[in-house]
């Protein structure tokens, strides 16, 4: 059972982030080839992210109200729709239909991480042995591998590689989720009703404040990813984009793989606060360090920034949110990420076009400083943990 849970969960994370590596990393290239402008592509992805922002709490509400909508079933449903949309893109279709299918595939994809995180935390809180950090690290590996492997595959087989590989990973995801043991209900325990949304935020005011900080942190974080090409050009070589993102992806791995050991050195809250500092440091170094090699060096901060946050924040939710509301907590954390991504989609390009790359980085750094201060303030002043992960 132990190996089955670990293997299935690693495959869940691998399939989700591998799909990100195809659908998101190559969205511009795929849609440009279909005759769309960069502006329209940005709007399409922004609208898709906005829909995902609204969809995630809706799915959580369904999970709260109806026992049928467990984390496993929501993951299978979203993965199924993503797979169908990606597979349909292999057909000869009109441009409007392609836009709708691609957008809906990305909507479903963005809904997956929150429920995957909740699935893992639920297993841990049910006493199962599962190393979330290693599984999430494997997801990062697949993201980097997918983004690199896609280029020669596209050169060899064409742009249909993007939806084809996404559909294959969607099938892998559904298979792994269905093989994952059902752990959400215990017959000997009475069912606890999840807390309504307003009551949840009244009872978890510090967590709500943390979400505000996360939104601001993720604006700058996502702007770096979305606008890395323009930043690389600003630093002197547009071709440095791929190398910079690859460095950022692979320096995440040691932190994610070793996070359970880090928890023995300090509490989860301290690592979460440290990650907020390094979120901002990556932006500041990208702004201040000159040239392409300065850009590469700045990406090393990802090791203790996003990598540390991606794992510590999930554990943190498992610690401070009641067990009955853990799905809601993980979803709101993902919603904050999605909102930051949405704002970055629209704000990043507008700022770069309006005030230039340098001033845009200044603004994003200031927003990140503010977000980090809010998040750290929320974490260090929180009440004692309600549950132990």
List keywords for this structure.
17 helices; disordered C terminus
Kindly state the mean pLDDT as a whole number? Answer: 84
Largest sheet: none
Number of helices: 17
Radius of gyration: 20 Å
Distance between the termini: 20 Å
| Element string (H = helix, E = strand) | HHHHHHHHHHHHHHHHH
Helix coverage percent of residues?
Answer: over 70%
Structural class estimated from helices and strands: mainly alpha
Unreliable stretches, pLDDT < 50, 5 or more residues? 184-190, 384-389
The strand count comes to 0
Strand content: under 5%
Explain how this protein is built:
- By secondary structure, the chain is mainly α.
- Helix content is 80%, strand content 0%.
- The chain contains 17 helices and no strands.
- Helix 4 (71-88) packs antiparallel against helix 5, helix 5 crosses helix 17 and helix 14 packs antiparallel against helix 16.
- The radius of gyration is 20 Å and the shape is globular.
- Mean pLDDT is 84; it is low at 184-190 and 384-389.
